[in-house]
Structures are given as C-alpha cells and as structure tokens.
C-alpha cells in the first residue's frame, strides 16, 4: 500500500515525471545503444521510468532493495524484469547500461563504492554507466525551494564534485552536465531540483 501511495503521489506532483522522462530519453539516445540493449535501473523504486526505457526498444531490469516497491512495479510493467535480490542481478547480466537515477543521495559513500565495483562486473566490456542525481543547494534563499528540497532529499545529497569523486573510484567520466527538474514538470513553477548527470565507462 505504501508503494502504491508513493507512486501515485509522485506521478501527480510531477505530471507523471514528464519532464524527466523526456530528458532521460534524450540521454539514452545520445548513448547510441543498440536496439534491444539491456538496461539495469538500479534503485528503481516503483519504476517510474520503466515505460520510457521499454518504449525505446530496450530490455528493462529494475532493482530495488525494497521488496514491496519491486512487487508493485512488477505488477505495473509486465514486460519488465524486477528483483530485490542483489545477487540475482548476476543471472541477468551482462548489461549494456546501468542507470542510477536519483538513488545515490540515499546511500553513503562506501556502500556506493561497493556497488560501483559490482556494476563493473555486471556490465558488458563496452558497457556504460549513467548517473543522474540531486545536487545539494543550501545557498538558495527561495523559501519554497528550500522547503521542497528539505522534504525531497535523502541523507546524502552531494555537490557535483563529490558525486564525481565517488564515481571515479571505478569509472571514467566521459561527460558531465547539470539539468533542472521542475515540480509539475513545468518551468512556470519556481520549485525545482538541480541534477548532476554523469556519463561513465569502466576504467
């Protein structure tokens, strides 16, 4: 029930993540993955981006540590593959791409480094890693944005250089950029999160 409530709330608040869906699709196109490429959505939650990925002709595998959200996501997206068992991901490898979309800000540095080492084992030799995550912005004086970020962010929101340093423990960053994700997927609303986007390949 909690997974369903969280999913519905996120979809209503963000107009079904419309803006982020378009942005993610654009990033995937830039990676020039072959049709049928296998993508792991690490920390998928209720798989808000599964439809976008599968619509582009890619195989979708969603992983999250929460069995409840995984079960709920699997009931929504019958053509996807889902698991909450980290070891089971080895049964689905190799992946063309691993996507970590706004999940690392919930995880401490050392566990992330452990996961990144595991990512290298799960990827094809020419596989890629795409990180998209919330940036720390404590210097923003806007009261609505300050409140939104306080409610939105996890315990480990970082500045861009901190994400980069962690990722570089196992990967080479080939491209770095930032984007802005607006609430209600509308640029007319003054509440948003800035995101860092890192395109990476194994060292």
Could you describe the 3D structure shown?
By secondary structure, the chain is α/β, with parallel strands linked by helices. The protein is built from eight helices and seven strands, in the order ααβαβαβαβαβααββ. Strands 3-2-1-4-5-7-6 form a seven-stranded mixed sheet, sandwiched between helices. Helix 4 (67-76) links the parallel strand 2 and strand 3 (81-83). The longest helix is centred in the first third of the chain and has 14 residues, at 18-31. 32% of the residues are buried. The mean pLDDT is 91.
Task: Detail the poorly predicted runs.
Answer: none
Total strand segments: 7
Computed Rg:
16 Å
Helix/strand structural class = alpha/beta
The SSE string, one letter per element, is HHEHEHEHEHEHHEE
The biggest beta sheet reads: 7 strands, mixed
Percent range for β-strand residues = 25-35%
DSSP helical segment count: 8
* End-to-end separation: 42 Å
What does the secondary structure layout of this molecule look like, with pairings?
Elements: H1 2-13, H2 18-31, E1 38-42, H3 50-55, E2 59-63, H4 67-76, E3 81-83, H5 89-92, E4 95-101, H6 109-122, E5 123-134, H7 143-152, H8 160-167, E6 171-182, E7 192-202
Parallel strand pairs: 1-2, 1-4, 2-3, 4-5
Antiparallel strand pairs: 5-7, 6-7
Features:
203 residues; alpha/beta; 7-stranded mixed beta sheet; 8 helices
In short:
The chain is 38% helix and 27% strand. It is built from eight helices and seven strands; from the N terminus they run H-H-E-H-E-H-E-H-E-H-E-H-H-E-E. It has helices at 2-13, 18-31, 50-55, 67-76, 89-92, 109-122, 143-152, 160-167, and strands at 38-42, 59-63, 81-83, 95-101, 123-134, 171-182, 192-202.
């Amino acid at each position: 029930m909690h997974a369903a409530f969280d999913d519905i709330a996120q979809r209503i608040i963000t107009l079904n993540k419309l803006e982020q869906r378009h942005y993610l699709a654009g990033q995937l196109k830039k990676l020039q993955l072959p049709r049928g490429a296998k993508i792991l959505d690490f920390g998928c939650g209720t798989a808000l981006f599964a439809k976008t990925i599968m619509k582009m002709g890619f195989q979708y595998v969603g992983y999250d540590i929460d069995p409840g959200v995984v079960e709920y996501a699997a009931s929504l997206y019958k053509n996807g593959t889902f698991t909450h068992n980290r070891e089971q991901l080895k049964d689905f490898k190799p992946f063309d791409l691993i996507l970590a979309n706004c999940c690392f800000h919930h995880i401490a540095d050392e566990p992330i480094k452990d996961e990144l080492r595991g990512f290298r084992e799960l990827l094809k030799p020419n596989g890629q890693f795409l990180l998209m995550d919330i940036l720390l912005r404590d210097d923003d004086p806007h009261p609505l944005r300050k409140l939104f970020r306080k409610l939105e962010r996890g315990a480990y929101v970082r500045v861009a250089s901190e994400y980069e340093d962690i990722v570089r423990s196992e990967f080479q960053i080939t491209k770095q950029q930032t984007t802005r994700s607006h609430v209600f997927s509308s640029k007319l609303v003054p509440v948003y999160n800035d995101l860092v986007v890192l395109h990476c390949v194994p060292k």
